[in-house]
Amino acid sequence: MGSADRLEALARRAREAEARLDAVLKAAVDAIVMIDERGHVLLFGAAAERMFGWEAREVLGKNVSILMPEPFRSEHDGYLDHYLETGSPRIIGIGRQVVALRRDGTEFPVELSVGEIASFGEGRRFVGLVRDVTAKVRAETEAREHRERLAHVTRVSTLGEMAAGIAHEVNQPLTAIASYAQALARQMRAESGGDDTRRETVERIAEQALRAGEILRRLRGFSRRGEAKHVPCDVATVVQDALRLAEVDARRHGARIELRVEKRLPRVVGDTIQLQQVLLNLVRNALEAMDGIPPGDRCVLVAAARDGDRVVVSVMDRGAGVGERAEAQLFHPFFTTKPDGMGMGLSISHSIVMAHEGTLTYERNPEGGAIFRFTLPVETTRGKK
Amino acid sequence: MSGAAADPVVFVVDDDEAVRAAVAMLLRSVSLPVETFASAREFLEAWTPERAGCLVLDLRMPGLSGLELQERLAAQGNPLPIIFLTGHGDVPDAVAAMRAGAVDFLGKPFRDQDLLDRVQEALELDRARRAEIGLREELRRRLERLTPRESEVLDRVVEGQPNKQIALELGVSERTVEIHRARAMTKMEAASLAELVRLVLAARA
Fold first, then answer.
1. Helix pair B112-144, B17-28: axis angle to 10 deg
2. Residue B38: what pLDDT?
3. pLDDT > 70: what percent of chain A?
4. Which of A172, A205, A325 to mutate to probe the B interface, most B CBs <10 Å?
5. Does A176 touch chain B (CB under 8 A)?
6. Among positive and negative, which fits the CA dihedral A73, A74, A76, A77?
7. Which helix (H) or strand (E) holds A131?
8. Total Cβ atoms within 10 A of residue A105
């Protein structure tokens, strides 16, 4: 082959490479930007034009720092120098999430990865791949806010439920004290010539017991005044949102969650956060209950279906189930079968479902394990009231 | 139902032993007979409908709840008057209890006089109901003493038909109608036509 032919072949290969590069630049979803070692833009892909709002010809030759907000804009040249001097990269080969700047001055989160191109004597070249992660970041933020809201509601309702539980427990002996004292005072009044001081003392005991009862009543009224927002809501969405959070727990327990939601479920009226709290609580209980069985069998079935004027949501597991003696006390505050449990979860869930004019019940799973079911009235039946 | 049952009793049902004993002591301090039960089921096993009195019932109990006991008694046609005792915050349950005919519900702890007043009210209500039931049974017994012909005449008298029309319908003389009617009045122990009509309507209530 003659040298002219070789040249021709090289030229053809160069044209081909350029065409390939051009196609890649046009097709890429991520923005591609190439700079020289002084930070001047050498290449600005079609996706970069769309993402930043600049046209390639406006950017070429300019310092790439115009694509960054302060303080990165002023510091970028320094980063380059630092790398060129020390060879220790801040970003090259690592990739990280940074903030980028559009032509119109708006900032947006991007994932940036930078690679260095082997030098051909014209100095070093760097290629940056920029991915707009606005949607991803927003979804993460929403998920985090959702978890925080749920955690907050859980804390508040745990406190409320504890207060209510204590109020109920203390109220019983208080009732006995008040009744005994009042009965005794009555007997003393009936006895002729009874000692007035003693009788008055007994009457005071009764008064104080009644006063304590009044304090508990106020405390309980206060703790129950939650900020529930009852709005029409779609059960399928509530279930899916709750299960998205439960997925993490499921993985930790080596279990899977199976979902069966009937199509075209009617809407219910309720507080979506509270309802998710109920469902999440039931699913977590179910997951914990299956720790002792072979991993392959660890499956929680969550089903939602219509039953007349109610929507029934059931959570079934194949775990240890609930002991016969525990059954009667399942929904009582402070009752727990877990070594580190507080006995609040089911009690709160029960209170929440009751506040939604629904029911929460337990039954034994005939195939082993537990079934918890809660019902909610569909929107229309409530509207009639 | 025999009217000659024992004295009315206040039946106290509460799962908390101390509350049960204290409430019983309070009621006994005013000389009311009291029987206590630790659960709704225990009460259902011991109690029979001819036993007069009233129920002092805890709303929330494990097993059969107070509301469920109320429901069950009503379904059996035993309207024993009920005073519910509730812990705090059982408002929806209390509303349901009142709707289903409870005499009242008292929040725990309660003033002795409030409970005693309600208990007196409930006992009075039970007495009146049993008296009404007794009267109705007595009137039915009187109705059963009538001959078929006297019954036919009585039915028409109660409907407000004049003797003449009754005679015509039954194909007898007016005089005969008058005799049957007089006998019916005697057997029903009615002093006037107005009382006769009232007694027959009461028997059929």
1. 70
2. 95
3. 92
4. A172
5. yes
6. positive
7. strand A125-132
8. 8
